[in-house]
Design brief:
This protein is an alpha+beta fold and 203 residues long. It has three domains: 3-70, lambda repressor-like DNA-binding domains (434 Repressor (Amino-terminal Domain), Orthogonal Bundle); 92-151; 155-199, no CATH class. It has helices at residues 3-17, 21-28, 32-39, 47-57, 61-66, 72-121, 126-153, 170-175; strands at 156-158, 165-166, 177-179, 182-186, 193-199. It starts with a helix and ends with a strand. The mean pLDDT is 86.
């Protein structure tokens, strides 16, 4: 997707409908500044705003993503192209989230053990030792929770028995045995447990 092209298209369609930026903003319940940002190519509507914007401008979501009016065979070709681009962007987002998870997990672990080492090796009063270990532990728990949320939401898992792809629950992620990004869980489709691999795709 080319944000500059899409922004120019939004502006053209808005003017064809005879709307000011303020009037269009009121129709879809956003600020005038948001419309300006889209039209300048500095942003793109959230998923929840795409349909309201398309309805207000009387265009299709496919035309919005393409940044132009489409007809006949071109509509179908552009739809396939846009779908592939969205899938690619989604997979890149998953990979970025998983990278953040790794960094967060390593940093929290290092911090936790560093606080324990400081509390154990330095000549400190008991209450200071307790505070250091408590702070390290609390940070570690918060980071662990964040990592598990990312692990659950960034993509899904694939059952090795029936090859069903799905997003597990937080409870499944929390209590499943695992090594790396492979977890021993029950598939919601075949109801059998297996070592399931992380995948950037989900059904």
């Amino acid at each position: 997707m080319n944000l500059q092209t899409i922004g120019k298209f939004i502006k053209e369609q808005r003017k064809l409908k005879g709307y000011t930026q303020s009037e269009l903003a009121e129709k879809i319940f956003v600020s005038e500044k948001t419309i300006s940002k889209w039209e300048c190519g500095n942003g793109f509507p959230d998923a929840s705003l795409i349909l309201p914007l398309c309805n207000a401008l009387e265009i299709s979501a496919n035309e919005l993503l393409s940044g132009k009016r489409l007809q006949g065979e071109e509509y179908k070709l552009e739809a396939e192209k846009n779908l592939m681009q969205l899938k690619s962007q989604e997979e890149q987002s998953y990979k970025l989230l998983l990278s953040i998870e790794n960094v967060l997990g390593y940093m929290a672990s290092i911090m936790f053990f560093a606080f324990i080492a400081i509390a154990s090796l330095l000549d400190l009063e008991l209450w200071i030792r307790i505070v250091l270990i408590s702070v390290g532990f609390i940070n570690f728990v918060i980071a662990l929770h964040s990592c598990l949320v990312i692990e659950k939401d960034a993509g899904g898992y694939e059952c090795q028995l029936c090859h069903h792809k799905y997003v597990p629950t937080y409870k499944q992620i929390l209590f499943s045995m695992h090594y790396g990004r492979t977890r021993y869980m029950k598939c919601p489709k075949c109801n059998k447990k297996s070592w399931q691999h992380k995948t950037s795709k989900k059904n």
